[in-house]
Write a structure and sequence with these properties.
By secondary structure, the chain is α+β, with helices and mostly antiparallel strands. It has helices at about 5-20, 35-40, 55-65, 70-90, 130-195, 200-235, 260-270, 270-290, 335-380, 390-400, 410-445, and strands at about 95-105, 110-120, 300-305, 315-325.
Length: about 450
């Protein structure tokens, strides 16, 4: 009994030393989870794809967060973090091993039968288990940050595609107006031909314009359908019921003050947060690799039954021997060199990525903000009456041609000029919304959180 208690105490102290460890020091503070209030608390319920009504931007955002295929893999990746944490929690580094031996004992007076039974258990005295749990938690942090990053990427892509769909819809509407105008020109030209006001060439010119208008209408409808298919692909919306975007094009706004945007990006940029989490995970793994270089002792107990050779193979035991043993590897050659070197290199790579992202962030914000401002200025240069007056201008042209005030070639030139202006104005809107979506992606937060985006009005 006096020998058993010191052995049990030594084993308990060894296990305690193997489980307790001071947390490692990190070069980067813990990154905060990205705010997803715009996703987690949508201002309206998730839409039902089976309904054929129009869908708002916020409805599409809410639907995409629940159903986007881009998020499926990222959500599944969280299971890898949980699995690594479960794998780090076992108390002992390895399962115990059992040894059993049996054989004859041959002596001058006969042959006996010896039996030996041993049990060995590997222990950790370095505190590697605590560091292993710490490294697993930091790896899980990386997966959570990656999921938040993908959620924000989906948010940005839905923003961009939704506004592209609005622009494509307006282009299709303009193409429809142009088609009606061209059909009316042919009708007017045929009536004027019968009256002798124009030559047959004028009718042929009008018919040529009608053919081009039909082609433009087909192309515009196809582009609108393509953008809606892309929107359905990103959001996970069933392609059999393509979403119909609600609302009108928002009035453009210039980017907020650069200093505020840069500060917001340093706080919210999702890639920066992911790189920070990856740096901490690499540092935790490096601490673990260094601690894994410590030797792992083995404790064991062995029972041996030594037979009496005079009694033969079935005879009784001459002695029963119980031995307690401790084995300690000598860390001379390996010392976990490969894992330590690899972990150290990973720390360098992770730190470089984080520093590179942080160093380029301000320039990226400035570039994106500049593109937003340029787009807003381009739209402002067209004025607020370019898009609404397109149909009105065509009506005036038709009336002038019908009254004989202008010829068909003049109508064709003016029509193409109005159409070019309309297309250019819509392209400016598309570039503006793409720049706005890029700015939000870089910043990592809503740049204009007070806007509805799908109605063009403030909340």
């Amino acid at each position: 009994m006096s020998f058993r208690r010191p052995c049990i105490g030594a084993i308990a102290l060894t296990l305690a030393a193997g489980c307790s460890v001071a947390p490692p020091r990190y070069s980067i503070e813990t990154p905060t989870q990205l705010s997803t209030e715009h996703i987690d608390a949508p201002p309206e319920p998730i839409p039902d794809p089976s309904q054929t009504g129009k869908v708002s931007l916020h409805g599409m955002l809410a639907y995409a967060d629940k159903n986007s295929p881009l998020l499926t893999v990222s959500r599944a990746e969280l299971g890898r973090g949980d699995a690594q944490l479960r794998g780090a929690k076992p108390l002992l580094p390895a399962d115990p091993s059992v040894q059993f031996s049996i054989g004859p004992r041959i002596g001058s007076d006969g042959t006996g039968l010896d039996v030996s039974l041993g049990l060995q258990q590997k222990l950790e005295i370095s505190g590697a288990r605590g560091l292993r749990i710490e490294a697993a938690e930091r790896f899980r942090d990386v997966k959570q940050m990656e999921l938040a990053e993908i959620r924000w990427l989906v948010h940005q892509r839905v923003h961009a595609l939704f506004h592209q769909a609005l622009v494509a819809r307006d282009r299709a509407v303009a193409a429809g107006e142009l088609l009606k105008f061209s059909e009316s020109l042919v009708s007017i030209a045929e009536r004027r031909l019968k009256a002798g006001d124009i030559s047959p060439l004028g009718v042929r010119v009008a018919q040529g314009e009608l053919a081009q208008a039909r082609q433009a209408k087909v192309a515009a409808d196809g582009d609108y359908r393509t953008v809606r298919i892309s929107l359905a692909e990103v959001t996970g919306w069933p392609s059999a019921h393509l979403p119909e975007p609600a609302g009108n094009l928002d009035a453009p706004k210039k980017a907020p003050e650069i200093g505020k945007l840069v500060a917001l990006a340093e706080e919210k940029n999702p890639r920066l947060h992911t790189n920070a989490a990856a740096t901490r995970a690499a540092e935790a793994q490096s601490h673990l690799a260094a601690r894994e270089a410590w030797p792992k002792p083995q404790i064991g107990v062995q029972y041996t039954r030594e037979s009496d050779t005079a009694g033969g193979l079935g005879g009784g035991a001459e002695a029963n021997v119980v031995l307690f043993g401790v084995g300690l590897p000598i860390p001379l050659w390996r010392k976990n060199v490969a894992s330590r070197a690899r972990a150290k290199a990973e720390v360098g790579v992770a730190r470089a990525r984080h520093q590179s992202q942080k160093q380029m962030l301000a320039a990226r914000v400035r570039r994106a903000a500049n593109e937003v401002d340029v787009g807003a200025d381009r739209i402002a240069a067209y004025g607020s009456q370019i898009l609404p007056t397109f149909e009105k201008n065509l009506t005036m042209l038709r009336r002038a041609f019908e009254l004989g005030e202008i010829e068909i070639l003049d109508v064709s030139v003016a029509q193409r000029r109005f159409l070019d202006i309309q297309r250019s104005a819509l392209s400016s809107y598309q570039q503006y919304y793409q720049a706005a979506a890029t700015l939000e992606l870089v910043v990592g937060a809503e740049v204009w959180p007070e806007e509805r985006h799908d109605t063009g009005e403030s909340k």
